C-alpha cells in the first residue's frame, strides 16, 4: 500500500473527504518524521515503535565493483512491531 492508497482507505473508513484525509495522513507522517529528527522515540501502543539508532562506521562492498569501501557512521530509523500487530499477523 502506498500513501495515496492509505489516504483513500482513511477517507473511506472515516467519512473524511479525500483532501482532509490526505492532510491527516501527511500530518501524522510529518509528526513522526520531526520527532525522529529530534532523536525522540514514537510509540503507538499496539502498533509499534519508531526509533533512531546510531550505526558504527564499517566496511562494506560496492554493488557495482565488488571492492570494499568504508561506510560512514550515521543514524538509522528503526521500527519495532508491537505485540498487537505481531498477533494480528499470526
UniProtKB/TrEMBL annotation:
Keywords: DNA condensation, DNA-binding. InterPro entries: Hist_DNA-bd (IPR000119), IHF-like_DNA-bd_dom_sf (IPR010992). CDD domains: HU. GO terms for molecular function: DNA binding. Pfam families: Bac_DNA_binding (PF00216). Transmembrane segments: none annotated. Belongs to the bacterial histone-like protein family. This is HU family DNA-binding protein. It comes from Paenibacillus radicis (ex Xue et al. 2023).
Amino acid at each position: 500500500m502506498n500513501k495515496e492508497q492509505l489516504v483513500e482507505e482513511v477517507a473511506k473508513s472515516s467519512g473524511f473527504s479525500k483532501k482532509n484525509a490526505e492532510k491527516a495522513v501527511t500530518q501524522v507522517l510529518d509528526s513522526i518524521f520531526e520527532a525522529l529528527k529530534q532523536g525522540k522515540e514514537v510509540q503507538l501502543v499496539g502498533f509499534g515503535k519508531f526509533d533512531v539508532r546510531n550505526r558504527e562506521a564499517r566496511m562494506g562492498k560496492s554493488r557495482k565493483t565488488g571492492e570494499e569501501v568504508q561506510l560512514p557512521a550515521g543514524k538509522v530509523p528503526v521500527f519495532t512491531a508491537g505485540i498487537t500487530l505481531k498477533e494480528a499477523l499470526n
